[in-house]
Write a structure and sequence with these properties.
This protein has 315 residues and is of the alpha/beta class. The chain contains eleven helices and ten strands. It is globular. It is an enzyme of class 2 (transferase).
């Protein structure tokens, strides 16, 4: 079993769903705590400046975005699978949930605890990450709409559970459960479960499902220093990708490309195209701190385009 390193921070809901995935698969993993607000120079050496968390590291292979992390974990530990009813429904539901609920969830969150959020966090999210002001005064006028949206979505969850049983896509937990859990986890953990359950009208069926997902736990975690993760990358060689190079848009292996999220935190990561298929793209980068690494991204939710300038950081 390869050494698994997760770069994350405690209150990130996107990190929580990966912690649960590690727990579902019963894995032992190393934890590197990352600041919620950059700069993150050691993590940047691994990712090429990718702004979002979580990031999974296995030696000199770096996996960005929770969808890509799920795929890596399926390769490492195929059972129990994150996709007991197939990938399509779980992935589509996960992508929809992340994008549809994120802004409403922030609006509800800051209504309850916005005065406690650090100014540096608010400035960063407005200027560099989301592109809009998430302070309590700025979000307040739309609070009724945010509550309406989340209430509607929570009823959809109830309908899925009424049809399928204990979990959203069937009798076994899937990636969709881990993803849809994380937004409500964020709100209940920070604002109080009773408060959020009442405000959003969460049914007993939904709250029982939330409890079942939370009970999965996080597996076995060992804290390590960020420097240890850097050393692990420097001491390793990237694994040979098993997907070949068949980019659906015709990008050639070895070409310079940028990979950029298509929604927020739109910081491009540059590298040489190593491998690609319809679901994954792998680029090579070289950094003085870590040497050569392969950085993996999913295709859904990302733009992979020819680089317009020379990539000086690639071997």
């Amino acid at each position: 079993m390869p050494d698994i390193i997760l770069h994350h921070y405690d209150l990130s809901p996107f990190c929580e769903k990966i912690r649960l995935a590690l727990g579902l698969k019963g894995l032992t993993w190393s934890s590197v705590k990352v600041e919620a607000v950059p700069p993150r120079p050691l993590l940047d050496a691994l990712t090429g400046g990718y702004r979002r968390l979580p990031v999974l590291q296995i030696g000199a292979d770096i996996y960005c975005d929770s969808e890509m992390v799920y795929r890596a974990l399926e390769r490492i530990a195929p059972e129990p699978t994150l996709y007991p009813r197939g990938e399509g429904i779980a992935k589509a539901l996960s992508l929809w949930w992340d994008r549809a609920t994120w802004k409403p969830a922030i609006g509800v969150l800051v209504h309850h605890i916005g005065e406690h959020l650090p100014e540096a966090f608010l400035v960063d999210r407005k200027t560099n990450y989301l592109g809009y002001d998430i302070s309590k005064p700025a979000m307040a006028p739309m609070l009724p709409a945010y509550v309406q949206q989340l209430t509607a979505f929570a009823q959809w969850l109830d309908s899925m559970l009424a049809e399928h049983g204990d979990y959203l896509t069937g009798s076994a937990v899937s990636a969709a459960d881990l993803t849809c859990h994380h937004t409500l986890w964020l709100l209940r953990a920070n604002c109080g479960a009773d408060t959020i359950d009442a405000q959003l009208g969460l049914s007993n069926r939904v709250t029982a499902w939330l409890d079942r997902v939370a009970a999965i736990g996080h597996g076995t975690c060992v804290e390590i220093a960020p420097e240890a993760a850097i050393e692990a990358a420097r001491a390793a060689e990237p694994a040979e990708p098993g997907i070949g190079c068949n980019d659906p848009s015709g990008l050639a292996q070895g070409s310079r490309v940028t990979v950029t999220p298509d929604d927020n935190a739109r910081v491009p990561v540059e590298g040489l195209l190593v491998a690609a298929d319809a679901q994954e793209v792998v680029i090579a980068r070289k950094d003085p701190l870590v040497g050569r690494v392969h950085v993996h991204f999913p295709r859904a939710g990302f733009e992979v385009l020819p680089a317009t300038e020379a990539v000086r950081s690639v071997a």
